Amino acid sequence: MDVRVRYAPSPTGNQHIGGVRTALFNYLYARSLGGTFILRLEDTDRTRYADEYVQNLYDTFSWLGFSWDEGPDKGGPCAPYIQSERFALYKEHAEKLVAAGQAYYCFCDEDRLSKLRAAQEEGDSSDLGYDRHCRKLDPAEAARRLAAGEKAVIRLKIPLEGSTSFQDALLGQIEWKNEDVSPDPVLLKSDGFPTYHLANIVDDHFMRITHVLRAQEWIPSAPMHVIMYKAFGWEPPVFCHLPMVLGQDGHKLSKRHGATSVNEFRKGGYLPEALINYVAHLGCSFEEGRDLFPLSDLERLFKIDRINKAPAIFDYQKLEWFNGQYIRMKDDSSLAALVRPFLEAAGLKVPSEDFLRAAMPLVRERLHFLTDAPAMMRYLLEEPPLAAKEDFIPKKQDLSRAIELLRAAAMVLPSCDIKDIPACEAAFRAKAEEIGAKFGDLMMPVRVAITGSKVSPPLFESIQLLGLAKATARIEAAIAGLS
Ligand code: GLU
Ligand code: ZN
């Protein structure tokens, strides 16, 4: 069988972790079986629609680095892939269901429906939803009212008895009594717009979708979808409802837990590889004893059998760890290119390509996020302000001793061959011994003078990058400032 899967977002918000997980699993499933992955824009909800959300969708996936085979931007044999361009198809099919006796026109106006709702809320009857008032209308009578220009919606006839079931590829048999399925949902609104349910099923059919991997939120709609397939006489796709994504407190992942939109992660200095790798593991496992998988491995290893039924817990710390790992894997040029926009955004004057590349070995192991770079690298790009006096003073010593140590350093440093770091270190060790100081005590104020901070990337490597003259000048400036 030719596997065809789809990601079918509604552009009513920015792309978030849940959506990316759905898209990724569909993509991986297609790739694992040599199938086709389709993007379909479900933009039937025109009140919450915005162009910027469509743009955000494209930006997100181009940043993440994986894409669909067919879609609005790519075209394909089932074009158009935007529901608002397919309205005629939905109307035609809703009408076909009416003709087949599987759906009917409902003329109930908002006034009647709201009275019905109010009565249901007051009463203690368990009947909720539409009361199927128009289901009994004689079709000839309905046709006459329509012809006379009366407004009507089209509703699906949910069977009054029996039950509906389907085999979820992950969760197994799911069965609903038909009396518990929403009574006769609207398929086509009176303005001719389809509802999500109708458009979704018609498109999955005509786009020849074989498997629907989607969030568990959609389980309650699935029986109605299966009923609709039957009404059309179509074969439903295989459904696979993915495990929920929860925060660490067991509640559905939301803004309260931290970043959830991909934009936020991107701005927060995450690498797309880290995000993909982490999201792939939300409710799925790939190989025991291994954490890091290039996309090509995920594509090869993905199997529905490897998806868990239990909800996935989103662990920001684990993701941070992944991020650090992927930063470590970057070579100097790629990391420099990733870091540059963050330095620029922080208002730092960013140096030449060569300088930035040479700085990467100093920070690579220390970066958890690309956003750490500006603070960590500022001293390499600008003169640091004089640190607080106490920062210069080694343990159990005083300010005058700190100044003495700086003077000693200012004597050794200019004669060092900074290309030879071990030799420089040896020269400083010898100087420390000469003045009766511990090596660490000598280096501590030097580090603060040169980097502006007690903790910094490796010192001699930093001096190498800054050059002896600049480094010495910073020591002199510190001596002057402290004296
Ligand atoms: N447009 C729906 C959504 O936004 C698609 C649901 C489905 O995959 O069937 O999630
Ligand atoms: Zn009605």
Report on the structure:
The chain is mainly α. Among the domains are: 86-242, Rossmann fold (3-Layer(aba) Sandwich); 383-483, Arc Repressor Mutant, subunit A, CATH 1.10.10.350. 47% of the residues lie in helices and 9% in strands. The strands form five sheets. Strands 3-4-7 form a three-stranded antiparallel beta sheet. The protein has a two-stranded parallel sheet with strand order 1-2. Helix 12 (332-345) crosses helix 13 and helix 17 (421-434) packs across helix 18. The protein is elongated, with a radius of gyration of 32 Å. The mean pLDDT is 96.
Question: Nutshell version of this structure?
Answer:
This protein is mostly helical and 483 residues long. Helix content is 47%, strand content 9%.
